[in-house]
Amino acid sequence: MGLSFPPLTAAQFAKICKIALDEAGLNLLPTKQTMVATRLGRRLSRLAIDSYDEYLALVDAPDSHERLRMVAALTTNVSRFFREAHHFELLRRQILPELIAAARSGQRVRLWSAGCANGQEAVSMAICLLDQEPAAHLLDIRILGTDFDPSVVRYAQLGTYHHSMLGGLTGDQVARYFTKDTSARSYRVDVRITQMTLFRDLNLHGHWPMPGRFDAIMCRNVAIYFDRAHQDALWRRFWSKLTLDGHLFVGHSERVPSGFGYQAHSTCHTAYQRSRA
Description:
This protein is of the alpha/beta class. Helix content is 42%, strand content 18%.
C-alpha cells in the first residue's frame, strides 16, 4: 500500500516556493506542486507530522535544521560515474595533459565538482588523472566535491558504492581503483582517490569559503533548477573562481550566455574556457 500524503494548498505551495528560492535559488514552477507534495509528504511521514502547516512551522522554527532538509528533498541527486562522457573525453584529451605537466613542475592544480551528489563525478575526475599520471595523488592536485544536501555529502565522504552504482566504469577501472568489501556487494574507492578528493556541504547561493581558484569546474544539471537571475549570478561567481585559462562544464540542457568572457569549445557546446581578454 502506498503512502497517503495530506493535501498541499496553493498558499502552502507558494510559501515552500519562496523558501526554496530564498535559500537555494530553486525555481519551482506551478507544474511541480504534485512533486513537491510527494517529496515533502515523505518528510511529514518520517517526522510523524499530520499537516503542511505544522511542517512549515517546524521549518520556520529558530535554529531548525529542517529548512535545509526541506530544500534538499526538493532537489534531484542524479549521479553516475563518467556521466556525459564527452566531457571526460575533453578533459582527458585537451585539459589534463597541461594540468598534469604543471603539477609535475610543482604547480598547484585544483578541480571542483559543484553539485557532486554521491561523489561519482569527483571520483571520475580522479580516475582520469590517475589514468594519465599514476602518481597524481602525490602531486599538488586536489578535487573538491560540494553539494547542498548533507546526506549525499556524507555518502561521498564514505567512498563506498554498492555494486549497482558502478555503471559507467570499465571492469579494469573497478579492478584498479576500487576494493571489494567482504560481501562483494560494495566497493570502496582506492586510497589514492581519497587522498585527492575532499567533500563538503555548500550552498552555491551562499558563502564560498574556498580562497583559491580552480583550473576546471563541473557544475552540470544544477543551474536548470534556478531562475535566470540566479543562473547569471552563478555563472559570474564561477568565472571569478576560474584560473585565467580555466574550464567550466555545464549540463547538456544548460548554456552560459554571451558576455561572460569565455571561449566555447567547438567540440563540446557545454564546455567553456575562460578567456584572457
